[in-house]
Amino acid sequence: MIILKSEDELRAMREAGRLTALTHAVVAAAVRPGITTASLDALAEEFIRDHSAIPAFKGYNGYPASICVSVNEEVVHGIPGARVLKDGDIVSIDIGVVLDGFYGDMARTYPVGEISREAEQLISVTETALKKGIAAAVVGNRVSDIGHAVQSYVEAHGMSVVRDFVGHGIGRQMHEDPQIPNFGRPGYGPRLKPGMVLAIEPMVNVGGWEVVVLSDNWTVVTADRSLSAHFEDTVAVTEGGPFILTQA
Ligand code: MF3
Ligand code: CO
Questions:
Q1: CA distance 151 to 128
Q2: Integer Rg of the chain from CA
Q3: What CATH number should be reported for the domain whose range is 7-244?
Q4: Does ligand 1 lie within 6 Å of residue 108's CB atom?
């Protein structure tokens, strides 16, 4: 069942989204060679709690940290720890908050120091793929139009989209209906209506789309160990067009 949000609920989700984006800005400013992924997690958790909110991921299905930090061939759900970021890495950071009962969910891939051309292109293609997906989140379109827009753009640039993980509706729960694959044919699935709120989150690999989960049971890596990037925004479908809630 897809839960439509009222104007008041959208205003509350805007604040959750704003705090998520502000947390990203704080963490992004700390990303540099030499920093541990655990210290990025600590920074995020402190900032979120200082703003009367809760890190959404902590304890979710037993997840042990506040944010996900996925480096290089890691796709999503990397667990922060003692790993030290180094020059040339790319780091995907996924942050969720709960503020006044509503969730915000946002991911970005950041460069660490000087990165390769391939890594730069991957980040740029994934960021634009998210924009293409968001642009398809308009009243009257169907859910699969979003994934189709993402997949066409990514594959036209010789990269691939992850199939095993998808975007989702979001609101008073982190994961609500509908699921939002980043691939597929246009014109299928539920029709988009005003008041729907969607977390659109393309995961893009330089190589093949296949992924595997490491023995920590969380970290998802590309099967061919090629680089991967992840961009996610929480977006409201409105009569006036898609509105990105996860911005400052
Ligand atoms: N953005 C991810 C999602 O939509 C975050 C979940 S990470 C977890 O599911 F650790 F909470 F599982
Ligand atoms: Co999400």
A1: 11
A2: 17
A3: 3.90.230.10
A4: no
Residue 224: what are its φ and ψ, rounded to 5°? -90, 5
**pLDDT in single tens digits along all 248 residues of the chain:** 999 999 999 999 999 999 999 999 999 999 999 999 999 999 999 999 999 999 999 999 999 999 999 999 999 999 999 999 999 999 999 999 999 999 999 999 999 999 999 999 999 999 999 999 999 999 999 999 999 999 999 999 999 999 999 999 999 999 999 999 999 999 999 999 999 999 999 999 999 999 999 999 999 999 999 999 999 999 999 999 999 999 99
Q: Is 49 helix (H, G, I), strand (E, B) or coil?
A: helix
Nearest protein Cα to ligand 1, atom 8:
57
Total-model pTM: 0.98
Q: Evaluate: CB of 196 within 6 angstroms of ligand 1.
A: no
165 lines ligand 1 (CB under 6 A): no
Q: Tell me, in angstroms, the distance from the centre of ligand 1 to residue 32's CA.
A: 24
